[in-house]
Design a protein that fits this description.
It is built from 12 helices and 26 strands. By secondary structure, it is of the alpha/beta class. The strands form 7 sheets. A 5-stranded parallel β-sheet has the order 3-2-1-7-19. Strand 5 and strand 6 (98-100) form a beta hairpin. The model has no long low-confidence stretch (mean pLDDT 97). Bound molecules: flavin-adenine dinucleotide. Flavin-adenine dinucleotide binds at residues 8-14, 33-36, 43-44, 46-47, 80-81, 107-109, 128-129, 159, 249, 252, 281-283, 297-299, 302, 326-328.
Amino acid sequence: MTHPILIVGAGQAGVQAAEALRAGGYEGPLILLGDEPYGPYHRPPLSKAWLAGEMDAAQLVMRAPEMLARKAIELRTNVKVTAIDRAAKTVALSDGSTLPYSGLVLATGSTPRTLPLPGGNAQGVLALRSRDDASAMAERMAVCSERQLPLVVIGGGFIGLEVAATARKKGLTVTVLEAAPRLLGRVLAPMLSDWYAELHRGHGVQLVLGAQIDEIVTDHANQATGVRLKDGTLYPAGLVVVGIGVNAHDELARAAGLECERGIVVDACGRTSDPRIVAAGDCTARRLSDGSLLRLESVQNATEQGKSAAAALLGQERPFTATPWFWSDQYDKKLQMAGLSMGAEHWAVRGDMASGSFSVYHYKGDQLIAADSINASRDHLQVRKLLDAGVSPTPQQASDAGFDLNSLLAK
Ligand code: FAD
């Protein structure tokens, strides 16, 4: 009897891998194992429309169980894979059973970092990763709204800022505490960080940059009541949202002896150090040709790595080499990012930043390496083509809104 291919994690990468296995011609048994009580659902709305209460449960569903069943993908929810025995090619499940595998896809995602500070585990200190986390956050926001208690967000990254924007929509008083001197400093150009700071301030968010947190203050019932900075300033809070990044969920792989470093180390095809095990999505760290590791946490990365990993299990070569992209929605502004901006040395702006529709192009020397577009989808799609083709407009061409960047592609 053929042993099944098992997929651990019924999220974005897991679903893509399952469907790509079928699309690639795999006809054997295929089991998608997820430890959440739900079938696959979309995570990005959790900090946006879902948290705002503007979406119903049906819209959050990524693939209905019937749709998976039609492709002969067996979905098992509420079950956690607790160990991998690579020699026996079996996995142990939380229900006490064991499953053999002919191939294994690890798509276990990531977990929010916690605050290693006094009060970090108090009631009302919440992180956001899952549908249940979002429901708990929405419930607490409703209480804050009713009792006029403020929200403090720790971390001015994408999730923290999206939660802040959603909370302002709901009328909550919001403070964002960011340790760095600017918002999203690792990915955005300085002028775009400043633009985001103004955007949030303009919507009534109190923004504190360079904030050094000392403790979460709690009451006798261990309920968070505020956040105190090292300089003694106290920000009262009925809810504290911690958005300080995620850690790859690589414990299973580590325990099984797979190479892990900031995530499960994979090549461009999603292959791990074991030929029968591939990995995809937030749980991975991709080894690049120069030996460095790239960690991406995005829908595109999970989707593309899921497809590459499935191909690798079928003995096919499908490296994920496309330009990375990502988006974030805050208020009525859609940010679309293309490329990787690390190491950018100078920037060119296309369009008028004051108009709220523009793009910032990142350059390393005379090479275009990335671009961030605000309410400018055409720029975003165009720059992805330029980056895919390795074509760099000069900064002068990029900042000249009258210059047709497509003309460079035609050449
Ligand atoms: P996940 O979708 O996290 O799926 C992993 C699944 O595996 C989870 O269900 C987990 O519970 C399960 N699992 C883990 N361990 C086990 C185990 N041992 N056994 C069984 N199951 C297990 N990306 C964007 O590109 N744009 C956005 O705007 C955006 N917004 C986001 C907003 C929020 C609030 C969040 C949380 C993420 C957002 N992302 C966004 C990121 C994007 O959702 C993730 O990069 C993507 O979901 C990663 O997919 P994944 O399959 O690797 O992990």
